[in-house]
Structure formats: structure tokens, C-alpha cells
DNA sequence: TTGTATGCGTTATCAG
DNA sequence: CTGATAACGCATACAA
């Protein structure tokens, strides 16, 4: 190593280093970076050259400390492996990134306790806003969120009493309408298989059950649930279980998501059950696979990317001082009936 | 604004606030948080109470600035929507989280230019280490990474000249072996469909092609590629295209990933082509779907979660001062032949 | 347009 | 075991 003018031990260059090299004061360098319009073109140019030659990268911690602006948005999702959150995240990242914000992402593993800890960690980074999933945070967690005094969006479902802003759709209503569709198709022995059983899945199931009850078609022995995480393999297992306990008297099954539904479909095929002739299947989330598999799978489509986009936009609006028209947005859903369920009887 | 004793306007509590309430000095509070063993139980207790009643959350920016330890690991992946990276990320998050590190994640959209910008942003957060994808960073980006003087892991593929540490597998070799397997099954008219065509896909294709050439079975007209991102829909389209241009003389297709392969499989079914009788298919990445779809799909299995885990562990080791035995780890792959390709001829 | 002084909340260093 | 003081690197408020 060659001895250099100052940074003896090749430490990261600072504003001061750049300033010295450019022959200006530190604040001028800062301005070139943050308010270029407030600096003469001449200096601006000289400073940029110095920045380049030094490979200067601003220290965001110092900036954050001095300005109380971290440029970070904290995001908490319950699972990194659940593909559902990918699309939402993509929306958030696209909008946040375009707005100059970084995203600090944590995975709460569907546990409110973990969520509380992760959100505490997140808050220690002084995020300028937070996006969290659902509404079952611990009391302590909600207090933290509130006293952080930053915009918060709770996403994925419509909440009775949002902490601040809220975007999502009614899982209860979605479940309810799926049941209506299946009944309209003439199915009588209608079952349900669910996994993970987080709040949103529970609501889907509750809505589904309620609709069945209106027609006296709810049979508790046709409902199977497990706290295990969803997978295609599990979908097959649950279907087999349901078929055996129901004594074969089963003509339609609503699966709480497309993982289970695809598993059930593939398992049906292996058991030489014809879908939808022997058994109708309906999933939830509408994966791309569902539209292309044979027979194609009926499912509930949700504009997830759009939800992420809007969640981030609501945040950016508040951060920019533009008030949102609505603090709560119902993004809706759409039931897509395909080949795995027969046409509604006229 | 009123002159304040301390926080007139419910600002976040600071170390000083906690210290005052507990009747100790700020540094003692700091120690309770970071080196509890160096503080008497009595004080420790009093301080913790004060922390609780104030709902104190440390300011990581200040900590980072003062200690030069950000507790952040930066991660750059090329796509948030590609499921492949989910598993890797899960591994990284699990290990990093357990080690007390946060993960700052960026999506480079498969663009070295974007990657350079995003990594610059990442570096401004003073991460203590970086995990990036592959080796085709821009020169400038590699310089930044090097001069950051932090541990760096390049993952997903084995590199000739890693910047620092490296974990992955040889995509060339994987493609090569897939071709060998197909040829061993007796296929003669072997095609390839590829999308996105990033470095790793190109290597798979190159290996595949080279193996075919050894047996004089490479036919350029049976290779189709597109820069478009992969999807199931695209797999179907590419297969249709290939079938029409090849005049039906095609008996096996290697798809650069399982998205395309599933699309090709579903499309074959709609065209009433029997797989593998009329056409054999092999994918890459081994999604869960591939093992369960009918017919099940041959694919190349890669220990992605494990790769994420090990990448993070290599980082943590360096950070803890424990040297890694290897700076480069070949995590391997495994070709899983299933029903979509016929058995190798004896 | 540019610069000076000051403080952001924490930790390292050194005293006691 | 505990505390005083001085950084850490940058941006705000004010001057020039």
C-alpha cells in the first residue's frame, strides 16, 4: 500500500475527502448530491469529478442521523416461500424503488411474536413508513407501530379497525362467493381442505361455510384443516384423507389455495378420478399454472402486484404530503371458473 | 415550540432519555443493551425498566455511525418474481436472522447497469457483507465491491475468477449431462427452448449443445431462444414454434427451466401429443409441481435453500473471524429423470 | 451561490 | 463496574 495524503488505512472516502479534493466545503458536496440545482455548474462539475476519482459513496447512516430521513420503507410479510407475496413485493419494490426508497424486508414466519421482534428490529432502522401483512399484530407491536408516528399500511385483507391505512380484499366474501358458485353448479356434497390456517384462510373458510349453511349444505365431516404449511404434496394427502372419511360421497372441494388445489388435482388424476366429472376442484390465488394445467383449475384471482403497487403508492403519497383519497382500499378479487368445475346449471 | 426538558413533541426516546429516567449515564444504557455482562444486575434491571416504560427503540443509524457495524447484509438478486430465488433467500434470511443480521434486498432486473446502481445504493447503507448473483457485474460495480473491503459471496454459479467467495454449481456441466441422459435414452432429434437467456441459461445451453455435438446430434434449427422472461405461457408458445419449424421431427426437448417445461407439457397435452411417447421433455430447477404433475417432469434439482444457507454461513464465518475452509463451494445438482422422458435404453 | 457552526444518537476510549 | 468526553459523517440553520 502506498501512503496517501490522508486516508492512511484505505477507509471509505467521506464528504470531507471529496470536498478537500474538489477544493470546496463539505456542504457544497452534500448539495451537489441532494440539491444540484443550488450549486453552480462549475462547482457541480468539479465536485462530481472528485466523487468519481475517490469512488465516494455517501454514508446513509450519517445522512439518516443528520436529516431524520432514512429513505427506508419497512415491509413485513409472513413467508418468503409463499409465492403469493412475490407479486405483492414486486409491486412494492417497483414503486418504492422508483420513488428513491429502499425496502427493508422481514419474514415473520406467520408468528405474531416473531413479527413483533422483527418489527422492532425494523423500527430501529428508522424507516419512514411501514407495510405489514394483515391485522393480527400483538398489542405491543401495534403500540410500537403507532408510536413510531410514521405511515403504516396493513395489506392483504380488509380490516375492521386499521392502524392507519389498509389495502386488501375480503377473504370472507371470497369464500362466500366460491360456495355460491359451486352450489350454482349443482354440487351437493361440498368439502373444504385448508392448510396453515392463518387469519386469511380462516376467513375464507368461514365465508365458505356460511354460504353453504344458507342452503343447508354444510357438512362438518367434509371440512379438513391442518396447521401445516401448504404444499402440492399436502394437497394430495388432504384430498385422500377427505375421500376416505367421506366415504366417497364428495362431489366438489374448495382448496384454500392453489398449492393444495393442484396437489388435489394431480392426486385425483393418479387415482383415476375424472375432474370435474367425478370431483370438482376450486383453488385460491390463481397461479399461472392453474390457467394452463389440464384440466384448467378454477380459482380466485387477486390483483397482487397491483395491491403492492398501491400500498407503496399510498405510502409515497403521504410521504410527499399528498393526502390519499381513501385510507382503506378494497382491491377486490375475481372468481375464475375453469374446467375443474362444471358449468353452472341453467 | 416550547423549550423542552427533553421530548416535548413525542419524539422517539433516546439513550439519554432512558439514562435520565434510570438515573444512570447514557453509556451504561448502551452497555445494558450490548454487553449486559459488564453491568451490575441492579443497574441492568433499572435500565431495562426504563427502556420498557419509554418504549425505547435504539437508533441503528447512530449505532452504525458510531460503531461502524451496521448489522446489515446486502443481497442482490436479478428477479423477485423468479421462484428460484425464493428458496435461496429463505436460506439467507434464516441464517442471517439467526446471526443477528438484517438483510437489505435489491432486485436488479437481470440488468448489470441496474445492478451497479442498486449495489451502490446498498453500499451506502454500509453493509457488513454482500451476497450477489453470478459474475457479470460491470467493471465499476466490481471495483465498488472490492473497495468496500467487506466479504462478498457470488452465488448461483461457479465462477472462474470470483471477486471473493463463491457458491453455486456448473450450469454448463448440468446442461451437458442432461444431453447425455437424453441421448442415453435413445433420443435423436433433440431440441432446446430457452428464455431470458441470462448468463446461467446460456451456460446450460452451451453445455447441452457441446454434448450433443460429441454425438453429432446438434441441429441448430432445433434450438429456440428468446430474451423474454420465462413463463408457462411462453413455454407453450416456444414449443409450438419449434414443432412447426422442425416439421414434426422432434423427439425430445430440454427446456431451460421448469416454467417453460410445464408450459410445454401442458401445451403438448392440449395438442394431444403423448409425453414421453411422442415427445420427451426435461426442465430445470425441479419445482414441486414437476414432481407431481402427470406425467411427472424430468428436471435438474438444485439445493437452493442449502445454497442460501451456506452463502450466509460463509459470510457469518468471516464476520466472526472464523476462516472458511473453502472460498469456493460447488453445491452440485442432480438430474431427476421422471415420466416425461423414457427410461434409458439398456 | 457558497461557507460556518452545530447537533443528530450512539459507541470507543480512557479515567476513576 | 461506571462515567465523561470525543468522535462517527452528514445536513440543517443561518451568515456571508
Automatic annotation (TrEMBL), chains A, B:
Transmembrane segments: none annotated. The keyword Calcium does not apply. One of its GO terms (molecular function) is DNA binding. Gene3D superfamilies: 3.40.50.2300, lambda repressor-like DNA-binding domains. Residues 13-67 form the HTH lacI-type domain. InterPro entries: HTH_LacI, LacI/GalR-like_sensor, Lambda_DNA-bd_dom_sf, Peripla_BP_I. The keyword Methyltransferase does not apply. Keywords: DNA-binding, Transcription, Transcription regulation. This is LacI family DNA-binding transcriptional regulator. It comes from Gilvimarinus japonicus.
